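Example protein
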Amino acid sequence: MIRILLTVLLFIATLPALLGQTAGEGVFSFMQLTNSAKTAALGGVQIALPDPDPELLLQNPALLSPEMNNTLSVNYAKYLAGIGFGYGAYARDLGKFGMAAIGIQFVDYGQFVAADETGLITGSFSASDYALSLSWAKTFANNFTVGASLKPIYSHLENYRSFGIAADIGIAQRSSDHLTTIALCFKQLGRQLRTYYGGAANEKLVGSLQLGFTHELLHAPLRISITAYDLNRWNPSVTTTDPNGIDLPASDKSLFPQLMRHLSLGAELFPENKVTLRVGYNYRRHSDLATTDQTGLAGFTTGLGINLQTIRFNYALSGYALGGMVHNLSLSANLSRILK
């Protein structure tokens, strides 16, 4: 375990120079949405959760395990401004060839009023995004798993169309007592293949290098999870904008706030095996969505899990702004046990 962790840290130290990208650049940002109620309740980003739910595969393909065999998972979230997004996945054990899964991620932006340049209403139009995910993973000695996902992307905005391709590559290792999991994943490695209109330059996706840790206490029904994300886009020179539109250096460049902007924190309490209570905190969301008067519940998350023998139900409530709460629902079913 220690040797793997040292390798991970060395890998992280060399990647930022190669993969660094300024925040705000990129395309297909819907790929960064949290399509898992379990993850949403734990701060929004967690890549080391060793649970048999295919809904976790968008977090890290190395989480694909034999326990997910013949399991179907669906997720839906009611986002802000009437936007809805979701994800569905099915996993299958391929024996000596490892594990495979197929899934689809989507965002429905709803209907919009269409008008010409004079303001005359001409009808309505819709907008939506889709990404297919094809995942594979294989576990080797010492509970060490390697996984990868390939994601063809299709985006539809009124009469404009765009296509792209992305990939996730991850590793994970569980301790021999199954209490600790560490993981490393680089997500959204890809680019646009066809632009929305002719003559435009193809854009890259905003990739994210992530390092995760999960530990379950031996003598208490408590599990903690920490994921450090966007490690390849560490930017201490964050700026603010004054009322005249002039960029100014941020007032607080100290190490602690900069570090917290890259952490997603979560904890799970399971007094009984059938019920799980979850809480989480995302400092970046809390600070970015704070107003001058108050911050409200932005960045705070909570959730509930009900684990039956054949079905797992998970719910998450995430705070984004005053009056802006996002509800996320997930359902996973083991089809083999249901058919029995």
Remarks:
- The two ends are 38 Å apart (CA to CA).
